[in-house]
Amino acid sequence: MAGVPTSVIAATGLVGGYATARWTKKRPLGGVALAAAGAVAARGWQQKAGNATAAALSGAYVAAFAGSHPLAKKIGAWPSVFAVAGSVALASWVAVDRRK
């Protein structure tokens, strides 16, 4: 995964976690996908930008997941997931990926 930008991994985790939960109708399975991608992204953030950045972006990842639920009630599930995934991807790109 060294060549994949962390912004892509994080966004894929949020979208993929939701898609997995929705299509399999097994929310825990979606949680596994979300957590796995989050762990891979966090490791990349830590290796590329240090512990403080990794902690901040991990917090943003978790907040995006949590925030997507109330946002979905206002704009719909898929738009909410894409909005929070885009936000985390942008934050990751700004903080980590654009440095290369």
Tell the overall outline.
globular
Distance between the termini: 15 Å
pLDDT under 50 segments (min length 5)?
none
- % residues in beta strands: under 5%
Written account of the structure:
With 100 residues, this protein is mostly helical. It has helices at residues 6-24, 27-49, 51-75, 77-95. Helix 2 (27-49) packs antiparallel against helix 3 (51-75) and helix 3 (51-75) runs antiparallel to helix 4. The longest helix is centred in the middle third of the chain and has 25 residues, at 51-75. The protein is globular and about 35 Å long. The mean pLDDT is 96.
Q: What attributes does this structure have?
A:
mainly alpha, 86% helix, 100 residues
Topology:
Blueprint: H1 6-24, H2 27-49, H3 51-75, H4 77-95
Q: Short description, anyone?
A:
This protein has 100 residues and is an all-alpha fold. The chain is built from 4 helices and no strands.
